[in-house]
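Milestone M4 deliverable, item 7.
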Amino acid sequence: MGCFTFVKLMMVLFNLLIFLGGLTLLAMGIWVSVDGGSFLQLLGPFSIQGMQFVNVGFFCIAIGAVLVLLGFLGCCGARKESKCLLLTFFSIILIIFIAEVAAGVVALAYSSFAEGILRAWATPALQKDYGTDPVVTKIWNSTMAELKCCGFNNYTDFVGSNFEKENGGSLPTVCCWTNSLDCSPVEAELSAVQGCFKHILEILKEHANIVGGIAAGIGVLEIAAMIVSMYLYCHLDSRIS
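Output delivered:
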């Protein structure tokens, strides 16, 4: 078996796996979107509250569709030895790779800027919408209960808020270690419950190696896919001649 034939076979098998994985995600996404209740019931104890707020179905459909497209282009391009399909496959992988690198650079360079944007959105939401808007209230209650945190920065995000005024000066119960219904600002200050943003940052730092390893692995696979597709593309002319 020649080098070209071996690379072509590996390209077909690898992209066939991508295609089948994409179909699986696509089917799961459609299932969750159409009948999310039975899907969550199937997960049982693993169906955490956060899944209520993240539209997992549409996310799976989007990722699955991209994987199906890539798998089709790569598999058919290698199998039929089509330069057009191989070049399209290479271009899509290259665009995804550049977008991932750009997102990583922006995340590192503008992390403080992103923090400012989040703070500018979260603090007014807690001051005005928490306790009155059911969606905002449910999201924040779930987040604070899950992470055992209080507000975006700390309890001061609720001081002077509509929630405090409507509840006679009381803050959310999670802001006090006693979890009493009458959680006053003084008791919240003594409890010193950490803000959710700091808590999330600590979790991200703890898992930074895992996230970095996964990102590096995906990057290596994308580079390998581009190299193999371009190898096949460049050797097709000599193959035909």
